[in-house]
Write a structure and sequence with these properties.
alpha/beta; two-stranded antiparallel sheet; 12 helices; 13 strands
Length: about 425
């Protein structure tokens, strides 16, 4: 498994633990795929409606580099070698500006389809990768039930489980996150799930009908699993065909980018109109304890290029897709002796696509001066669950957000239309 070579044992242990043991609590019972250092999880449902794509920047992204508070003297004082100069920022206003590597998203900003949110995070600091990931994805503090917020979101949209509710893509080993009563399947890619003889309609139908009779005769769990597999094969073939068509609209994803590969597949999924409702893309490599300046530049450049290609690839379907970036925590204000930044608190969030009132920044900015920080970190003034609630209420009004995020005081920033 690849992860940022930063020497942070907590990050490496948490990645292994999330994938092999407790694993992404919010993704329990959904489709999961590992491609390089990018994990994707997908939830399917009936219909051709709105889609939420959650891009998790694993490792604790430095929000102060992503959306730079250039008006704060304390930012430049604390980062003499790693601060981003005001003259280099993209789309700056009186307080904030985007890191220059976000340039590929400039058109989305100008079109009002990209917004920057700042000082977002958990109610209380937690600087452990593992604990913070678990808390953010569970999003129900104090509960002993391991059911995550995306799972609760889907429960509010679907009356009964779908055969695609639990599937591993990219590996034939089913992760613990998918263990349970719901049927699950594991595969390397969608084409592997399709029935044989796809190019010969007669032979394919003979195989399908023969297997259908066989599984019906079995009955019970074996029979049900077989029937579900046949249904899955038909839908998988359709998805594989759409993904196989390649990027649309002249979209070009970065070469050798795991995030690009995941978003390319996600775009094909959405364009295939199989009823996908939510996709989570887990992109690693954001744990920048050393050499922040060039490392974060590369990370942001890859993110920006991939998201720009993704929205172009979606074509007309972009009008029903909303993307939000999340990370387990931000980084400390003060740079360290290795020209990096250690685990912090408050963070930045990007919201893109359908329903977003973009082209501006949203924040209850606490400031970075003396007395404004929390143990040397950016304070959190907006609960991340309130950000997600605002998206769900706008794009998925049928969902009871009080059940998705129990006990959260909803305090919208106003970034969704």
């Amino acid at each position: 498994m690849i992860h940022d070579d930063c020497g942070c044992d907590d990050y490496g242990v948490s990645r292994r633990s999330l994938l092999k043991a407790a694993g992404l609590a919010s993704m329990a019972g959904v489709a999961t795929s590992m491609v390089g250092d990018v994990l994707t999880s997908t939830v399917y449902g009936a219909g051709d409606a709105n889609v939420l794509v959650v891009v998790s920047l694993r490792g604790g992204a430095d929000g102060l580099s992503m959306i730079v508070p250039h008006a704060e003297p304390a930012y430049y004082s604390a980062r003499p070698t790693t601060g981003i100069e005001r003259s280099r920022l993209q789309d700056a206003d009186d307080t904030f500006g985007l890191h220059p590597a976000f340039a590929p998203l400039g058109s989305l900003w100008q079109q009002g389809r990209l917004a920057g949110l700042h000082a977002v995070g958990m109610a209380t600091p937690n600087r452990s990768h593992f604990d913070a990931m678990e808390l953010i994805e569970d999003a129900d503090p104090g509960s002993s039930a391991r059911v995550g917020w995306i799972n609760r979101m889907i429960a509010g949209l679907a009356a009964s489980p779908d055969v695609f509710d639990g599937i591993q893509i990219g590996s034939t080993i089913t992760p613990t996150a998918l263990a349970g009563k719901a049927p699950t399947l594991s595969t390397v890619e969608f084409g592997d799930l399709a029935l044989p003889f796809r190019s010969d309609a007669v032979l394919k139908e003979r195989v399908r009908s023969g297997l259908a009779r066989q599984y019906s005769a079995y009955g019970g769990q074996i029979g049900a699993a077989g029937v579900n597999a046949l249904a899955l094969a038909e839908r998988a073939a359709m998805i594989d065909s759409t993904v196989g068509d390649g990027p649309q609209g002249g979209a070009v994803y970065p070469k050798y980018s795991s995030l690009g590969s995941a978003l390319r597949t996600t775009a094909g999924l959405i364009r295939s109109k199989v009823g996908v409702k939510a996709v989570a893309v887990d992109a690693g490599g954001w744990d920048h304890h050393v050499d922040l300046r060039w490392r974060v530049d590369d990370s942001i450049k890859d993110l920006a290029q991939c998201l720009a290609a993704f929205f172009l690839d979606l074509g007309a379907d972009a009008g029903r897709v909303t993307v939000v970036t999340m990370s387990e925590f931000g980084r400390r204000l003060q740079e360290n002796g290795s020209a990096g930044v250690d685990h912090g608190y408050g963070n930045a969030v990007l919201a893109l696509g359908a329903g977003v009132k973009g082209g501006q920044y949203y924040s209850r900015w606490p400031g970075l001066g003396i007395g404004k920080q929390v143990d040397g970190d950016l304070a959190v003034t907006t609960d991340y669950r309130s950000v997600l609630t605002e998206i769900l209420r706008s794009r998925f009004p049928a969902v009871d957000t009080s059940k998705v995020f129990p006990g959260v005081s909803y305090d919208p920033l106003g970034f969704m239309g």
